[in-house]
Design brief:
mainly alpha
């Protein structure tokens, strides 16, 4: 597990290895408590659908699960104790729970990762990798126009029968494909997009740099300013030089006029941007206030209409009650006369 995490924390693009490595990770973990004859012939789709219950016939006896030599030496001392049996049961249950979690979380049969694995130079020249590479144009549709898709298929077919391509050896995958893209530009457009998929530690380092920029006095820094500072810091880290060394100039050389002009105009530009934001905020507040007033007027009108309707209903009810009373009195007088 640690080697898997460390591998994909490298700066070198390794997204084409992700499908293979996560399958190896899951199979190696299952071998710690599962029967090897049930694992060796299973593909990623079968591994994802594997029955990991105790009664599925896959799990080794509790005493055979991998625990390490140090644990085995301790167990030898009290192998008949109830503590040892309880340990075996808990270890087996822990293995099964972890395997189910990996089975649920790892995209073992992800079509995108399977297709990306075809970029590996080691599997060039195989019909399966050719078909997987062709499917990339549908899985990453933004890389090509509709007119380029036919050309892409032809370049993929030509790539898989090209015997003049150099071996990869110790070259990184992006450097190797940089030479191939010259010969296959349409294929290279898709490969360039795929190899830019992030899997390394740069996001974490970005948050570390952010912590060095953002503090209590600069908590209201806008995104553009932060982006500019972060870009400068990344450039300095890439060159391995300090700001003084990177921007130093030899004696007698002239100062960059564009840099001086930008520095002079920076304060004015910043003030104009602040004024524009203030005006926008005030306009928004006025708009909300007008909406609130209009809402209050509308609510007052609704309340007035409700009051008028209630008053009318009360008047109608009084008139009906008065009419019933008069009818009853008239009926009573008629009966008295009789």
């Amino acid at each position: 597990m640690k080697s898997y995490v460390c591998l994909f924390q490298s700066k070198e693009p390794l997204v084409h290895k992700l499908h293979q490595k996560q399958e190896e990770l899951f199979r190696d973990f299952l071998s710690c408590f599962g029967k090897q004859e049930h694992l060796i012939a299973k593909g990623p789709k079968e591994l994802q659908q594997l029955n990991l219950n105790q009664d599925g016939g896959l799990i080794l006896p509790k005493e055979k699960v991998f625990c390490g030599n140090a644990v085995k030496e301790i167990i030898k001392i009290g192998h008949r104790s109830t503590f040892v049996q309880s340990f075996y049961e808990q270890a087996s249950s822990a293995y099964i729970l972890c395997a189910r979690y990996l089975q649920q979380k790892l995209p073992l049969y992800n079509p995108v990762l399977r297709a990306i694995s075809s970029l590996d130079p080691d599997i060039q020249g195989h019909s399966v990798s050719c078909q997987l590479m062709k499917s990339l144009k549908e899985l990453i549709p933004v890389a090509l126009t509709s007119d380029e898709k036919d050309l892409y298929d032809r370049e993929v077919q030509a790539f898989h029968v090209d015997v003049s391509l150099p071996p990869q050896n110790e070259t990184s995958i992006d450097q190797w494909w940089a030479g191939v893209m010259v010969k296959y530009p349409t294929l290279g457009a898709v490969v360039r997009g795929v190899l830019s998929i992030f899997h390394g530690p740069q996001v974490e380092s970005s948050f570390n740099i952010m912590g060095n920029i953002m503090d209590a006095k600069s908590s209201r820094m806008n995104v553009e300013t932060f982006d500019a500072i972060q870009t400068v810091k990344y450039s300095l880290r890439a060159t391995g030089a300090t700001a003084v060394k990177h921007f130093s100039r030899k004696p007698g050389t002239t100062v960059c006029a564009k840099l001086c002009s930008s520095m002079k105009g920076a304060a004015g530009q910043y003030k104009r941007k602040l004024a524009a934001k203030t005006a926008e905020r005030e306009a928004k507040q006025k708009r909300l206030q007008r909406q609130k007033i209009q809402g209050n007027k509308h609510q007052a009108k609704v309340q007035a209409d409700k009051a008028v309707t209630a008053s009318r209903l009360k008047f109608v009810a009084r008139q009906k009650r008065k009419a019933r009373i008069e009818n009853l009195e008239e009926l009573a007088r008629k009966r008295l006369k009789q």
